[in-house]
Design a protein that fits this description.
The protein is of the alpha+beta class. It has a single domain, classed as Cupin (Jelly Rolls, Sandwich). Helices cover about 30% and strands about 30% of the residues. Strand 14 and strand 15 form a beta hairpin. The protein binds fe (ii) ion. The site of fe (ii) ion has 4 residues, from loops.
Length: about 325
């Protein structure tokens, strides 16, 4: 009989109590699966459809403060993309949904969910379970943002620094979170250095083999110290879907009707009504009507240092 390696290590009673409520770090063995070596990642990239790969660059330019911008990677193969991430550039590759789409990674995702359920109890409240892989260069950073779903960051290779902030309106104004659920921006929220003084974790050193968890909607940001590989597991819960639908309605009221709603101060019946309305608007109009155009301003170019160069005339991303 083949013995299956346990991927999550040293989970204790404190972790069970903190799960979903506090920032916490737990050890794991994902690096021992062999699925996250440079060779395995290059082959994984070659198998993955291009429209599910976000190849981003963080320009060192005041016109793009703390922003990641899309790079046209043309027909570059996985080996070239890995080389770009290991270069002196500021490259951040998000391979979306690969963990739920490619069978060998899906096996790992299912095992992690099973192990987690063993620790925190059978939880059927996990919808739309998916996962992506992040491959990023030593000079890359993930700007200050909040995720609209439950997010587990399984850090696998390299050294990062992570900051996590309280999810109060001071750190995450309603208007900024509404932008995220409306799809106006890719989950970036305005950040100023003063916010770091109120961070819950500022910063935590994160090394390969560590899983970091935080409460739903907590703003966070990450700076790389070395080349890094991580896996991001995401899923929706009834609570996250309810809040997102209600704040979607508030976002529409603010933008189309000039109102100034507050989610925190809303009564339970008001929240419920807004969540119902939000679900209906999302179904009928979708998020597309709020989405800004995704313009391509940079191209992957193996011949330049950092692997990325500006295009002469920006154009709209095709997918
Ligand atoms: Fe995130």
């Amino acid at each position: 009989m083949v013995k299956i390696m346990k991927l999550i290590q040293n989970w204790n009673e404190e972790d069970r109590k903190a799960y979903g409520k506090k920032v916490m770090v737990v050890q794991h063995k994902l690096n021992e699966t062999g699925l996250f070596t440079d060779e395995a990642l290059a082959a994984m990239l070659d198998r993955h459809p291009n429209h599910l790969i976000d190849f981003q660059h963080i320009p060192d330019d005041p016109d793009y403060p703390d922003q990641q911008v899309g790079v046209d990677f043309g027909d570059a193969n996985g080996t070239t993309m890995i080389k770009a991430a290991k270069s002196s550039g500021r490259v951040w590759i998000n391979v979306r949904e690969v963990v739920n789409r490619q069978p060998e990674y899906k096996k790992i995702l299912d095992q992690l969910h099973m192990e987690l359920e063993g620790y925190v109890g059978k939880n059927k409240d996990r919808k739309n379970c998916r996962g992506g892989i992040l491959i990023s260069s030593a000079n890359a950073a993930t700007p200050y943002h909040a995720d609209p779903t439950m997010t587990h960051l399984w850090h696998i290779r390299g050294h990062k620094k992570a900051w996590v902030y309280p999810k109060t309106t001071e750190f995450l104004p309603d208007e900024a979170y509404e932008s995220i659920v409306l799809g106006e921006v890719d989950e970036d929220v305005p950040w100023t250095p003063e916010l770091d003084q109120g961070a819950i974790v500022a910063p935590a050193d994160l090394h390969g083999g560590e899983l970091v968890l935080w409460p739903l909607r907590s703003p966070h940001r990450v700076e790389n110290v070395t080349y890094c590989v991580s896996m991001v597991m995401e899923f929706s819960t009834k609570r996250s879907a309810f809040t997102n639908a209600g704040m979607f309605t508030n976002g529409v009221l603010r933008r189309k009707f000039g109102m100034n709603p507050s989610w925190e101060n809303a009564s339970s019946p008001e929240k419920l009504t807004k969540a119902v309305i939000g679900r209906i608007i999302k179904k009928t109009t979708g998020r597309k009507s709020f989405r800004r155009k995704d313009m391509v301003r940079f191209k992957l170019d193996e011949t330049v240092e950092g692997f990325v160069r500006a295009v002469d005339t920006p154009y709209e991303r095709a997918h």
